[in-house]
Amino acid sequence: MSKKIRLGILGGGGDSLIGVLHRIASSMYDSYQLVGGVFNPIPEENTGFAEKIGIPTNRVYNDFDTMIEEELKLPEDQRMQVVSVLTPNFLHFPMAKKLIESGFNVICEKPMTTSFEEAQILKETLDKSDVLFAVTYTYTGYPMVRQMKEMIASGVIGKIQKVDVQYYQGWINPIIHDAEKRANTWRLDPEKGGISCCIGDIGTHGYDMIEYLTGLEVESILSDLNYMYSDNKMDIDGTVLLRFSEHVKGLLRTSQIATGEENNFTVSIYGEKGGLKWEQENPNYLYHLTEDGPLKVLKPGHGYNSEFSLDGTKLPPGHPEGIFDSMGNIYKGVAKAIRKEEYHPGEFPTMNDGFRGMNFIERVVESHQKGNVWVKL
Known about the structure:
The protein is an alpha/beta fold. Helices cover about 35% and strands about 20% of the residues. It contains 13 helices and 14 strands. A hairpin with a 3-residue loop joins strand 10 and strand 11.
C-alpha cells in the first residue's frame, strides 16, 4: 500500500465552509494526510483550530513564509507534497507563486488570481517548474457532469448548437441594501476580492463548466453587469452573451441577488441530435432530450454510464452523491497525478482553466465598461 500524500492547508480555519469541504474531500479514498499549515492569521486561533481538528501543532505555523522556510528544512520524504490555498482571493497569487517556486504542488481555490496579469505570471512560473497545479472548479467532479462530458465527446447529441448556463444565488441580497454591510464585506472589496464579485465568484464556475463539457473555447463575449449602488465597486449580477463561432452561441446568466435562491447552477447544452441538462441542486439526474423519443433520465452508479463517470461514483445507485464527493473526486485525480499514475485528463481543472477563467472575468468587466460591446477572448 502506497504512503499517503502529505497535505498542507492555507486558510480554511474556524467555521469556513470551504475549509470543511477541502478537508473532507482530501480524506476520501485515503490518499492524503493533513500534516499542517496556516489556518488562521491569528496565532492562538490558528493553533487552537489545529488542536480542535486533531492536527499536531509542531507543523502549524504562524505565517505562510515561516511555513515555506521550515518545510524546506525537512527531508524531502517528510515535507508537504501539496498545499491547498483556501485564503481570500488577494492572497492566492503571492502564495501560489511562492509555492511553485519552492517546489510544492498546489491545489488552489478559484478565482486563481485577482487579475489576468497575475494569472499570466503564475502560468509562466509554472511552465518553468515541474510541479502540479490544480484549480478547484468543484462541480466538474460530479459523476453525472463527467457522464455529460463523455456523452458530448462521443457525439450523442451531435454538433453543439446552443449553450445556456445559469448560476443564481441570493446571499448578497440582505447585504447589498445596507451601506455599512456592503462596505465591510470582503467579497465586495476590490482590494481583497479582485475586479469582480459575481462573475469572479460564480460566473467563472459557469464559464469553466461550459468549456469543460463542450471542448469548445469561447471566442468573444458581450456582458451587462449590475452593481446596484453607485458606491458599490463590485458586480453582483450579470448576463454574458457567448460566441464560440459564427453559428454556435450561448448565454451565461449569473446573480447573487436572486432573492431566495440558494445555489441554483444549471447547465443546458443542445446539439443537432439532442440536448443534455444538469442541475447542481439535483446532481444525480442527467436529462437527455431528443426530438424522436421520450425524455431519458440518467443516474449515477449504473453500468450504462461511462468508465469516467463510474470511477467518480462512490455509492450504489439510488444513494445521493453531493458536493463533498465532487471535490473528493478532484483530490483523487490530483493524487493520481502526483503519484504519476494514469488518469483521465478531465479529473481535475488545471492552471489553464484558471488562466482562461481570469481572462474571462476581465473581458466581461471590460465589455460592460465599454458600453456592452463584443470583446474577444
